[in-house]
Amino acid sequence: MNTPNDARQYAPATERNRKPILEVLLQVLPQSGTVLEVASGTGEHAVFFAPRLSPRKWLPSDPNPQLRASIAAWRTHNPAGNLHPPLDLDVRTLVWPIETGASPEWLNLYDFKTSPLVAIVNINMIHISPWSATLGLMAGAGRLLPPGGILYLYGPFKQGGHTAPSNVIFDETLRSQNPEWGVRDLDDVVAAANAQHLTMLETYQMPANNLSVVFQRASNP
Ligand SMILES: C[S@@+](CC[C@H](N)C(=O)[O-])C[C@H]1O[C@@H](n2cnc3c(N)ncnc32)[C@H](O)[C@@H]1O
Fold first, then answer.
1. Are strands 150-155 and 184-185 parallel, antiparallel or unpaired?
2. In angstroms, what is the span from residue 59 Cα to ligand 1's centroid?
3. Considering the entire predicted model, what is its pTM?
4. Minimum CA distance residue for ligand 1 atom 10
5. Ligand 1: does its nearest atom lie under 6 Å from the Cβ of 125?
6. What pLDDT digit, counting tens, does each position of 144-169 carry?
7. Is 11 within 8 Å of 43 (Cβ atoms)?
8. Do 56 and 32 meet the contact criterion of CB atoms below 8 Å apart?
9. Dist. CA 65–CA 70, nearest whole Å
10. What are the pLDDT digits (tens) for 85-111?
11. CA of 221 relative to ligand 1 center, distance in Å
């Protein structure tokens, strides 16, 4: 039970998927540097991953103020030296807040000089947001990641059609909630990534018919 001042929210799926996701992250993330988590949601993933991925720094974010309050509350209950406070980030904005990060204030606040941004992690967002969010995510990853940097996606994907009956039902449910939502076709996501100099490295089959999809930022042309 939450006390009146406890803003922590709970998403039960995070407890089920966090260990399999961590196993992939341990394989694909650079060994050091800062990982930006886009669409952190409740913050349960952030407090689970940060201490287990040390010495990397973990920077959670979400555009929803109540979810940022939840992330902050989870961080208060599970402090980790490498876990930053949540950033207000909507991936559709043309300039992400940390890009004003060219300024010394941001460099110092997030320790970007000693721990530069090396990876972006995005779990269960692109099907629960309009396609413009996927395009914004790819554009931002293309702008911010250094050559060799990693973009990690997790969620359900279509691959020449739905990969499981449960995903068909899930897709219909999403579309009935919002016609702009829906399970994305992996080919469309890869094309959007390629347009931003991100190359798909690998996919991993995950529990409950989800996929991990790993992209790498190519060298500047
Ligand atoms: C289903 S939740 C997933 C949250 C968390 N990653 C998890 O796995 O529990 C979808 C998240 O996407 C975020 N989101 C939706 N549109 C977004 C956008 N344009 N930019 C960034 N985040 C967005 C929502 O605020 C929400 O936190």
1. unpaired
2. 15
3. 0.96
4. 125
5. yes
6. 999 999 999 999 999 999 999 999 99
7. no
8. yes
9. 9
10. 999 999 999 999 888 755 677 777 888
11. 31
Q: Record the tokens describing residue 94, joined without a space.
A: 């043309």
> Is the Cα torsion angle 212, 213, 219, 220 positive or negative in sign?
negative
Cis peptide bond upstream of 55, omega within 30: yes
For residue 38, list its beta bridge partners.
122
CB under 8 Å to 4, separation ≥6 — which residues?
A: none
Amino acid at 68: R
**What are the residue ranges in the chain where pLDDT is below 70?**
1-4, 101-103, 221
- The length of the chain in residues reads 221
> Is there a contact between 201 and 213 (Cβ–Cβ < 8 Å)?
no
Q: What is the three-state SS of the chain?
A: CCCCCCCCCCCHHHHHHHHHHHHHHHHHCCCCCEEEEECCCCCHHHHHHHHHCCCCEEEEECCCHHHHHHHHHHHHHCCCCCECCCECCCCCCCCCHHHHHHCHHHHHHCCCCCCCEEEEEEECCCCCCCHHHHHHHHHHHHHHCCCCCEEEEEECEECCCCCCHHHHHHHHHHHHHCCCCCCEEHHHHHHHHHCCCEEEEEEEEEHHHEEEEEEEECCCC
Residue 11 beta carbon below 6 angstroms from any ligand 1 atom: yes
Amino acid identity, position 36: L
